[in-house]
Amino acid sequence: MKTYLVGGAVRDKLLGRKVNDHDWVVVGATVQNMLDQGFEQVGSDFPVFLHPNTKEEYALARTERKSGKGYTGFEVLSDTSVTLEQDLLRRDLTINAMAMGEEQQLIDPYGGQQDLAAKRLKHVSPAFAEDPLRVLRVARFAARYFQYGFSVATETMLLMKNMVAEGELEHLVAERVWKETARALMEPNPEVFFAVLRECGALKVWFAELDPLWGIPNPAKWHPEIDTGVHTMMVLQQCAKSSDKLSIRYAALVHDFGKALTAPDKWPSHHGHEKLGLEAVLALSKRLKAPNECTELGLLMCEFHSHIHRAFALKPATLLNVMNRCDAWRKPQRFADLLTTCRADARGRTGFEDTPYQQADYVHRAYMAANQVDVQSILATGVKGKEIKLCLDQKRIESIAKVKNELKLD
Questions:
Q1: How far apart, in Å, do the first and last CA atoms of the chain sit?
Q2: Residue 73: is its pLDDT beyond 60?
Q3: What does the pLDDT average to over 71-81?
Q4: Per-residue model confidence (pLDDT) at position 39
Q5: Is the bond preceding 356 in cis, omega lying within 30 degrees of 0?
Q6: 143 inside domain
Q7: 385: left (phi over 0), alpha (psi -120 to 50) or beta
């Protein structure tokens, strides 16, 4: 019975990255051996155990054989005859198919160290094609390691294209796709995830509302990058620099879906794209089973980003209406997140990356002033029913107008 450190911990140790999780493979052991040593078995598909003290995962060495569609269609063999090399062979990428023994010796039967040096994301064996989830995993790794210069190997990209063409990705379940997408959105370069999926054709399978944005023009005056797909990825880049909130990054991703639905004969204008995109945002969120907070901020960003961009030109009453419709009074943090995403949208344009975004500062000041209106003092005047809201709105409009006058925006 021998124990080896495997997978991501070995990879990141060799890259000099911080190692957060340690996964172990045990060779030459049975389930009973592990239980006798106090390990707690988790999962019924194959033998994985939690260490009695560290709670780190220990898995018995195993092999897999494809027996059906999707990522669950496998028969697993795990017994004392399975070698470490056989276990590593079933893994996705060569850089994830390395192990370290108890003496810290590196075991690298499939050239992972060489691919690390070459900054190459390369599949271990043709068995890669048996698990469609690996297409998303490779795209996520590309987003994580892009900062180090990594890219997907040509032969692996070809394999991924073939998997998409054969319809393998259609057998994935939404929960797994969302899990990979959410993790990818939180990587340092989330835009690379979508670039890889687009290159292999997977974007149109699970992100049908995002895929058409490439090739749709914007006015060059406001968008020197022209292309809406390129702009969306630039906004995502800006969000990755300014926020570690998943909902903000998701809102950036979906905010311009309506531009794929505007009339081509009106391009590069996209009048009304804000409301046009709402159904598309809902469709993607439903398909991915995205969390409510992501969907809600995505819808607000889609509908109101142009209002925030034009905040200086809005009448105080119009700006108050935006705040009311965003439920800013009960959900102030979500409204603040909307402003953060709008700032990223404004900066996600060629040549505008470092431009101050004073609209967000103004809207925040106006909101804070309006929020200071004392409801109790209104009630003390004796107004009742609908008159309460009318008076409250009027007081808030006056507060917003005062901020606007102070900033000399009229």
A1: 78
A2: no
A3: 70
A4: 93
A5: no
A6: no
A7: left
pLDDT digit string, tens, across residues 24-57: 999 999 989 999 999 999 976 678 999 999 999 9
- Domain-embedded: residue 132: no
| Structure tokens belonging to residue 241 | 């620099």
| Whether this model's pTM surpasses 0.90 | yes
Q: How many separate domains does the chain show?
A: 2
Residue 209, C-beta contacts closer than 8 angstroms, at least 6 positions apart? 254, 257, 260, 280, 281, 283, 284
Return mean pLDDT, the chain: 94
Tell me whether residue 249 is in a domain.
yes
- Domain boundary at 115, 130, 161, which? 115
Is 170 within the bounds of a domain? Answer: no
**Do residue 111 and residue 232 come from a single domain?**
no
Residue 34 belongs to domain spanning? 1-115
